[in-house]
Amino acid sequence: MSQHEISLTVNGAAVKKTVEARTLLVHFIRENLELTGTHIGCDTTSCGACTVVLNGKPVKSCTVFAVQANGATLQTIEGVAPDGKLHPVQEGFWEKHGLQCGFCTPGMIMTAKSLLEKNKAPTEQEIREGISGNICRCTGYNKIVEAIQYAAAKLEEAR
Amino acid sequence: MIPASFDYHAPRTLDEAIALLRQNEGAKVLAGGQSLIPAMRFRLAQPEVLVDINGLTQLDYIKQQSGYLAIGAMTREAALEEAALIQQSYVLLLDTAKVVADPLVRQRATVGGNLAHADPANDHPATMLAYGASVVARGPSGERVIGIDQFFTGLFECALVPNEILTEIRIPTPGPGSGGAYLKIERKVGDYAVTGVAVQLTLSGNICKSIRIGLTNVNPTPMRALGAEQRLTGQALTDEALEAAGQSAAAECSPSADLRGSEEYKRDLTRVVLKRAVRLAQSRVKGSN
């Protein structure tokens, strides 16, 4: 069994922990850091409920080992509205009813946020392609797309 | 699901990585991890040692060299989609990069890993077969270049020996009159292909001067549809010639029945998709109508 000390920045704060090499990043986030907003939906790299932003990129945290995040900057859903004011993407999900059961929502928000950072005015098709790695089993995709469109417009206003 | 225990190493240089593979028999190279980590979670793979090469950022590049495109093995799939060079001159590769797994997986998945895993359901094998690419491998005794036709040796097996690391993929730069396309039929984003066809061809007027065709997930190993290529080489691309090529590919491949369809269905779909892919490649030849 190999143990490794890792240091990383999580939602702006420095974290130092010892992890077993086989610990998946999602388990580290939920169990060691007790940040349970990141969900486990499928365990098969299919659903995207565990999406986090690692070094600026949206990734499935069930398919990265925690030890690989040594030295990284990590953002989870808990870091999206640090001062309690909703991020425009979160606000979009609230305003446009972008969730039903809410299980996929943290992953959807992390993906949508990354998408809008790269493409400020995505078309509906680009949004649908952008979230195609995230599954909503309530199949509330139309409302999720509207939520992301709302956020894109809101972010545009702020510029 | 939690993988079995393993020892973990994160080398900073290629030599260090190769030395680690040499010292640890049965060690596996961890590239993007988007196939290996799921396999480890299911305990389909239980390597005792992982050599994580994500720190080898020197293997992350896309460069036009004289006569070929060089792609570092650790180049992420997402980087292919965004590279202007690929958007302009390597349309078959661009098609492929857009349909590998899903956008989140493509942030970590690597081109080298996609090939070295030698999964006939992966997309790059067919594409690299169609391009006539080669791969560069580094081992303790130095570097060697392996032609893609010699690379895939079996189901999940390739020509790399255990202490070698795939470092670069080389795609010959398409000449004048050439075009390419990759078409994949999938039930949903992220699922494996029901079938996929990669085509790279060169036209001289109406005549197909040369063509290479790779097939995805319809054979135990990634394969070229050699019979289909023969039926089109030196021919005008008529509907009849395309139909004959499609039928040839349907007969040459060896798909297995699964949830994605029966053997017969996959063969017939391969016939149809091959025709579409050739037509799409043809339409992309510069100066063609």
Q: Quick one: overall form of chain A?
A: globular
What number is the mean pLDDT of chain A? Answer: 97
Structural class of chain A: alpha+beta
CATH architecture of the largest domain in chain B: 2-Layer Sandwich
Low-confidence stretches of chain A: none
Order of helices and strands of chain A: EEHEEEHHHH
Describe this structure in words.
The complex is a heterodimer of chains A (159) and B (289). With 159 residues, chain A is an alpha+beta fold. Chain A has two domains: 3-79, Roll (Ubiquitin-like (UB roll)), CATH 3.10.20; 88-158, DNA polymerase, domain 1. Chain A has five helices and five strands, in the order E-E-H-E-E-E-H-H-H-H. A five-stranded mixed sheet of chain A has the order 2-1-5-3-4, with helices on both faces. Chain A is globular and about 50 Å long. The model of chain A has no long low-confidence stretch (mean pLDDT 97). Chain B has three domains: 7-52, Uridine Diphospho-n-acetylenolpyruvylglucosamine Reductase, domain 2; 57-172, 2-Layer Sandwich (Uridine Diphospho-n-acetylenolpyruvylglucosamine Reductase, domain 3); 178-283, Enolase-like, domain 1, CATH 3.30.390.50. In chain B, the strands form four sheets. In chain B, strands 4-5-10-6-7 form a five-stranded antiparallel sheet. Chain B has a four-stranded antiparallel sheet with strand order 11-12-13-14, sandwiched between helices. Chains A and B meet through strand 4 of A and helix 2 and helix 6 of B.
